[in-house]
Amino acid sequence: MPIMASTLYRDMLNFTRNQFTGIVLLALLAALISVVIGHALSPSTDQLVILSAGGPDMADSASLSLQELVQQMTPEQQKVLLKASAAGTFAGLVGNVILAGALLTMIRLVSDRQPVSVLRAIGLSAPILPRLLLLIFITTLLVQLGLLLIVIPGILIAIAFSMAPVIAASDNLGVFKSMRLSSKLAFANLRLVAPAVLLWLLAKAAVLLLAAQFTQVSSVVAAVLLNGLSNIISALLLIYLYRLYMLLRQA
What we know:
By secondary structure, the chain is mainly α.
């Protein structure tokens, strides 16, 4: 019997409704961890002032590409920019890893009818977090490079490796084996995977647009809320892909 997308969406919504509190708490906790790490690793206020000192004015910078803008910076400004970018990237990566590891563990516990809480799910997911860290780092890097090039390659890469975290956590497989199996399954079931991943990408883009609406809110509060909303969107995709992978294994 073929797997229907409507069945997967219904199962995803049922699980989300039954575990809504836990999913929201996990999303906000992962967001808070990301924000705290980002603030701890970010350049100090004095260092950030350096970025605006002696650089091109607003009228000039508007006509410059990112590469040209960076080239016009002093070595000290480039160092501060690199530190800020690395801090944000690492903080987001850690938050995504905790979200994925804990959520996939939570789904497994619920499926096995075991008691589950956010903290217990995070604790039990600890053994797979290093593997997920490497996996999500590689896939995120490939997707971003693909999006920077012509957009389409990034979308295809996102689709190909979308199931890799689920496979790595469920079957205890290595990073590259999970990526290979994910690409094989994703393209073999493109009608089920592609729409979900595209909706996820569009929803994440919409969250970025919402950032402009949080100008009157504390930057820390806004960062946690926006990251939390983004995490909830990612959680929905993970639940959908987990259910799909379980059905594919049974087929």
